[in-house]
Amino acid sequence: MTNEASHPSTRRLRKGGPNRQLRPVGVLLLVAAMIGTFLIFSGPATAAIGNPVVGAGSGLCLDVKDASTTPGTPIQIWTCHAGSHQSWDFTAAGEMRTFDGTRCLDAKAGGTTAPTAVSSYTCHGGTNQKFRLNANGTITATNSGLCLDVVAAGTAPGSVVQLWTCNGGSNQRWTQGGADSQAPTAPGNARTSNLTCNSVTLAWNASTDNVGVTSYDIYHDGQLMKSVSGSTVSTQLSVVANATWGLYVNARDAAGNVSQASNTATIAIPPCQADNQPPTAPGGLTGTASGTTVNLRWTASTDNVGVTGYDIFRGTAKAGSVSGTTTIFADSGLAANTRYEYYVVARDAQSNVSPRSNLVAVTTGASCGSAICSVSQLATDNDIPWGVTTLPDGQLLYSRRDAQNIVRLDPANGSKTSIGQVPNVQSTDGEGGLLGIAIAPNFSSDPWLYVMHTSPTDNRVVRIRYLNGLLSGSPQVLVNGIARNKFHNGGRLRFGPDGKLYVSTGDGQNGDWAQDLNNLSGKILRINADGSVPSDNPFGNRVWSYGHRNPQGLAFDSQGRLWEQEFGNAVMDETNIIVKGGNYGWPSCEGTSGTCGTAGFRAPIRTYPTAEGSCSGIAIVQDVLYISCLRGSRLYRATISGGGLTNVQSLLAGTYGRLRTVEPAPGGGLWLTTSNNGDKDSVPNNSNERIFRVALG
C-alpha cells in the first residue's frame, strides 16, 4: 500500500470511525489518561540509538511499518520524523538494529534470491541479519549480495522495501545521518602457521575502530582471497603448491571504511609430493624465418605430474619462455641475414628440466617484415622504472618508484642523470610510491612535469617545474584525497588531444569506492593543467569514468579515443575504451565475470586471463595498440579496427620477464621497461631492471 493509511501517524487518527465514535465521557477519561501518562513519563527526552537511513531516490527514511515491534513487520520508506523505528545502528557484528537496538533488519526466511522480503525481527545473529553499508551508498545483504531496494523505484511514503539484484539505481542508494568516516587501524603482526602444499593458517592482531570492525579482507599480492567477520583474527586459506605469495589483511567497519594493510607475511608454498622425474624432451622442433623474426614449433613433452613451462634457447642464451600448454614461440627483433640455432627444454613445477629438444638452425631474412624489428637495451636500473615520458629533445624521463627520484636518460649513449627527488613520497610496502609522470604539449614554453605519487595520507597528482635540467621549487598539489593502500593505487598520467590531463586511480582495496561518484578512487579523472575541473566533465567534479579496479594503462588513438588497461582480481584483465561518464562495472563485474549484464555497465573491448595478463602499460603507435604485461611477461600487439582489436599477437613472451611500462618513442618505436625484482616490497634499489628501445616493423 502507498496511501497514508499505511503509517501509524495517520492510522491512529482513523481508529474509531463511524461505528466507534467516542462518547463525551470516554473522551474525558481518555484525555485524563493521556495527561497522567504524560506526567508519569515526562522528563528529558532520550535520543533514539542510531541514525536515519535516507533513500537517495525518494528523500524518505527507512521505516518499520506502523512503528510495530512485532517480529516480521515489513519495512517501507516514510517521511522522516526521527522515531526510534527510523533510527538504524550499524553494529560491529554487521547488524542493522532499530527500536533502540531491540530489533534487527532481517532477510525473510534467509532468502538469497531476488526478490526477498525484509522485515524487523528479533535479533538472533544469523547470516540473514548481516548487512553492509557500502561506500557507493548501497546496502547489501552479506548472505546473498542483494541490495536493499525500494520496490518499483517507488518514491511515495509507504513504498515497500525488499532485497533485489544490485543495479546502481537511486532506489538502491542510501545515506545515513551521522555517518562514520574514520577507518579502522591497520591489522598488526600478520603471521602464518601450519603451511602445507594446499593450505596455510593466517593470523593477525585485531584492528581497532571508533565504532567497530565488521570484517577483514584477506589478500595475496593484491588479489582478494576471502573476507571474514570482524571478530575473527585467524583463518585457514587455500594455496597453490610451488608458489611464493605475500599475504596481508585489511579491516573494514560498518560504514565501509577500509584500513591500511597489515604487514606482508610471505610464504614459500612447498610441493605436495617429492618429484625428481623430469619431463620428456620436446620433440619435432622446427623453425621458419619471417623477415627478422623466427617462428618456432615443437611437440609437447610429457611429465608424471605436469609440464608447467618451456624455455627456448637461442645459442646458449635463453630467448624466452612460454606456459606448459603452449608449443609455439616467436623470436623477434633479430639481425638480418643471420643464422641462429635454437633448442627447447620443458620444466615441471619442481624445476625438473627435460633433456634438450633437437637443434634447429634458421637464417633470418634480408629485412624486417615482422611486428618487431629490433630490441636494444638503453640502460639498467636497480630500482623500478615506473612512469616514462619523452622530452622535446628526444631524451626520456623516468620515475624510480621506490627510490622516489626522477632520472633523465639519453638514448643516444645510455647516460643517466638524476634530476631530483620528489618530496613527500611515501611507499606502501607494496605497489605505491613514485608512479606516473607526464609533460603537457606546451612543455617547451611552460616546463611543468606532472607527477602522481603516494603520500603518507593519500595518492595525489602534483606538478613541479623542470628548469635547467633539474626539478625546481616546491610541487603544486593539483589533486589529493585519492585513496592509498598497499596495492590498487593506479597511477598513470596522460595528456589528451583536448589538452586535459587524464589520471588513472585504483580503488584503494575498497571496491565500493569505484561506484561512488563522490570518491576519486577507482576512476579515470580528467582535470585542467592547473588541477581545476573542466566545465564539461560529466558529474561536475574530476571524475570522467568510474567502476574501475586498478587501471594503469592510458593511451589515445588517432580518433581521440582514450584506451585503458585494467588489472582484474583473479579472473581476467580488461582493455576498455573510456567514454565520458561511463561505468565499467567493478566491483560487480570483472571483465565479463559477475553481474556484467547490469544496465549501464560498459563492456570491455578485450579480456585476458590474469595468468596471461596482469598488464600495466599501453601505448598506441599508428593505431596499433601495445600492451606490456607483468605476470604474463609479454607484449601484446593488436590493430585498432573500428571499435575493436584485430590481429592480436603475443610478442617477447618470457624474453625479458615482467614488462611494466610501454611508451611511444620518437620515430615510431617504443620505450619498454621491466619490473622483475622487488616490485611488491617498496624497498629502494633492490631491483635489476632494464630499459629498452623497440624498433617496430
What does the model show?
- The chain starts with 7 loop residues before the first helix and ends with a strand.
- Helices cover 4% and strands 43% of the residues.
- A hairpin with a 2-residue loop joins strand 20 (283-290) and strand 21 (293-299).
- The radius of gyration is 30 Å and the shape is globular.
- The strands form 14 sheets. Strands 2, 3, 4, 5, 6, 7, 10 and 11 form an eight-stranded antiparallel beta sheet that branches. It has a four-stranded antiparallel beta sheet with strand order 16-15-18-19, with no helix packed on it. Strands 23-22-25-26 form a four-stranded antiparallel beta sheet, with no helix packed on it.
- The protein is mainly beta.
Defining key terms:
2 helices, four-stranded antiparallel sheet, disordered N terminus, eight-stranded antiparallel sheet, 697 residues, single chain, mainly beta
Separation, N- and C-terminal Cα atoms: 70 Å
The biggest beta sheet is recorded as:
8 strands, antiparallel
What count of helical segments does DSSP give?
2
Rg is: 30 Å
Overall outline? globular
- Poorly predicted sequence stretches spanning 5 or more consecutive residues: 1-46
- The pLDDT mean sits at 91
Beta-strand segment tally: 52
**Quaternary class:** single chain
Helical amount: under 10%
Strand content: 35-45%
Strand-pairing-aware structural class: mainly beta
